[in-house]
């Protein structure tokens, strides 16, 4: 079998999720390559919301945005930090809308779809199936309810990225709230720990938040979403293939944000492509960022009670635009210095030395 089809280099994409389809949707920018997506459909995801800052490389999401917030806040028991921006609003899109739009574009681009393939057909394989995550690794896990209330109860001008006024008994826990209107919002109970919590835990947290903090008494749950995002750098699902998306290191370990980094990774694949050569896949985080994220997760694992202080201090040290840049891997030395100086010193120094001596594959 040849690895060329009509002079084009054959690329097989394993999995039909965010990364594979986002790349296939742009196959028209990769004329010298012929793409096939392979997915059995056995692991297809339910619909959910992707939230991200609308950075310059994400302007193609504008037409699909359910809402944009030019203000967001981080809240603890004793502090509230509100950021605003003109440049990088926080945006939310529906997963299924993005996926079906990419699907359409991929079909227009003559991308082939198969349920299974014989991998003796020589081609470059870009594997987007989930990586191997060691037992006991840090996860960002959450359950969210999209709710509709009878009355105007949400401030729809401001996204709540983190509200720590919730049960901290299992580890770092916060409520994420995207108010789509005064009556409709997505409320998520989110933890950064290595163990998934019993479903009652998230349910209680969301209902208590709605009741006690938002003051909601008459609402209905429109839909539910849940997920567990592994935080760290992991062995690829198959070491012989190039990984993309979560399997290509695109998830930011310290935050679990991935959508924006997947699009960044795809931009780089396209801009570095050369006819006749394989596609190159880059991890969209620097070595420095990954080291800092590892230290950060060590601190959050051991000293989770510090999380409200760490996040409010970090937000307080940056402007809205700087915060968006920082969370999107666009921080310069000045921003890093501000953040480092805002952190509690002793736990981070201990975390640094632990990172240096610890070869544990778990993050
Ligand atoms: C509910 C939820 C909410 C999220 N919210 C956000 C957010 O707000 N912002 C953000 O930036 N990120 C968010 N993420 C994280 C991230 O953006 C998504 O996980 C994103 O879909 C990752 O893209 P991917 O292509 O790497 O993996 P996926 O989109 O998960 O695609 C993986 C592919 O592999 C296939 N597959 C899965 N398991 C197997 C298996 N065992 N064998 C074979 N094939 C398999 C699947 O069918 C799928 O086609 C969220 C994740 C979830 C689950």
What do these coordinates show?
- By secondary structure, the protein is an alpha/beta fold.
- It folds into three domains: 4-49 and 93-134 and 231-271, Rossmann fold, CATH 3.40.50.720; 139-230, Alpha-Beta Plaits; 287-357.
- Helices cover 30% and strands 26% of the residues.
- It has nine helices and 16 strands.
- The strands form three sheets. It has a seven-stranded mixed β-sheet, sandwiched between helices. Strands 1, 2, 3, 9, 10 and 16 form a six-stranded mixed β-sheet that branches.
- A hairpin with an 8-residue loop joins strand 12 and strand 13 (172-179).
- Helix 1 runs parallel beside helix 4 (259-271).
- It starts with a strand and ends in a 6-residue tail after the last helix.
- Bound molecules: flavin-adenine dinucleotide (FAD).
- The site of flavin-adenine dinucleotide has 28 residues, from helix 1, strand 4, strand 15 and helix 4.
């Amino acid at each position: 079998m040849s690895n060329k089809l009509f002079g084009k280099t054959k690329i097989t994409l394993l999995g039909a999720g965010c990364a594979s389809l986002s790349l296939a949707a742009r196959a028209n920018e990769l004329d010298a390559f012929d793409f096939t997506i392979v997915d059995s459909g056995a692991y297809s995801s339910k619909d959910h919301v992707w939230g991200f800052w609308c950075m310059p490389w994400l302007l193609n999401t504008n037409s699909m945005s359910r809402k944009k917030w030019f203000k967001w806040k981080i809240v603890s028991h004793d502090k509230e930090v509100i950021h605003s921006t003109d440049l990088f609003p926080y945006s939310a899109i529906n997963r299924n809308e993005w996926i079906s739009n990419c699907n359409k574009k991929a079909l227009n681009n003559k991308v082939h779809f198969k349920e299974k393939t014989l991998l003796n057909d020589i081609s470059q394989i870009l594997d987007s199936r989930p990586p191997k995550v060691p037992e006991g690794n840090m996860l960002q896990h959450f359950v969210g309810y999209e709710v509709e209330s009878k009355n105007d109860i949400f401030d729809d001008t401001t996204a709540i990225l983190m509200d720590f006024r919730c049960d901290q008994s299992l580890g770092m826990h916060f409520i994420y709230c995207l108010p789509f209107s005064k009556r409709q919002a997505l409320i998520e109970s989110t933890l950064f720990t290595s163990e998934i919590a019993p479903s009652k835990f998230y349910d209680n947290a969301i209902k208590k938040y709605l009741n006690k903090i938002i003051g909601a008494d008459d609402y209905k749950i429109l839909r539910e979403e849940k997920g567990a995002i592994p935080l760290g750098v992991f062995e690829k699902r198959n070491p012989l293939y190039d990984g993309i998306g979560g399997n290509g290191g695109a998830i930011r370990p310290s935050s679990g944000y991935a959508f924006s980094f997947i699009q960044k990774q795809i931009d780089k694949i396209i801009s570095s492509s050369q006819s006749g050569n394989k596609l190159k896949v880059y991890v969209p985080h620097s070595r420095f960022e990954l080291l800092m994220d590892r230290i950060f997760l060590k601190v959050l694992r051991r000293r989770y009670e510090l999380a409200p202080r760490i996040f409010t201090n970090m937000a307080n040290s940056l402007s809205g635009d700087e915060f968006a840049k920082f969370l999107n891997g666009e921080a310069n030395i000045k921003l890093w210095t501000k953040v480092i100086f805002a952190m509690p010193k002793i736990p981070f120094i201990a975390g640094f030395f632990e990172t240096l001596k610890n070869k544990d594959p778990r993050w």
